[in-house]
Amino acid sequence: MALSDIKVASGSYLVGNCADFPSDNNCQLVIMGPVNQKDDLIEAGVAHVVASHGHEDSPELREMLSGGLRTVEV
């Protein structure tokens, strides 16, 4: 499957890119969701950071992840 085969509705999306944060394993995970599902995107990001990078869930972690999201138009 090519990236061009992935269909998403047009609109505003939030994107989180793990490569924007320093990591020991050079993680390149990218997650994306509609702007109206920001809370779900944060939950997915927290789950990844806890499971893959060994961080603990905290309000500070959630704030850092939220601040690292970028808005893109599709």
Topology:
Elements: E1 12-17, E2 30-34, H1 38-53, H2 59-67, E3 70-73
Antiparallel strand pairs: 1-2, 1-3
Helix pairs in contact: 1-2
Please outline what is shown here.
The protein has 74 residues and is α+β, with helices and mostly antiparallel strands. It has 2 helices and 3 strands.
Strand content: 15-25%
**Main beta-sheet strand count, sense and barrel state:** 3 strands, antiparallel
Radius of gyration: 13 Å
**Unreliably modeled segments:** none
Number of strands: 3
Return the average pLDDT rounded to an integer: 94
Report the order of strands and helices: EEHHE
Oligomer state equals single chain
Structural class: alpha+beta
Number of helical runs? 2
Fold and architecture overview:
This protein is of the alpha+beta class. Helix content is 34%, strand content 20%. It has helices spanning 38-53, 59-67, and strands spanning 12-17, 30-34, 70-73. It has a 3-stranded antiparallel β-sheet with strand order 2-1-3, covered by helices on one side. The chain is globular, with a radius of gyration of 13 Å. It starts with 11 loop residues before the first strand and ends with a strand. 12% of the residues are buried.
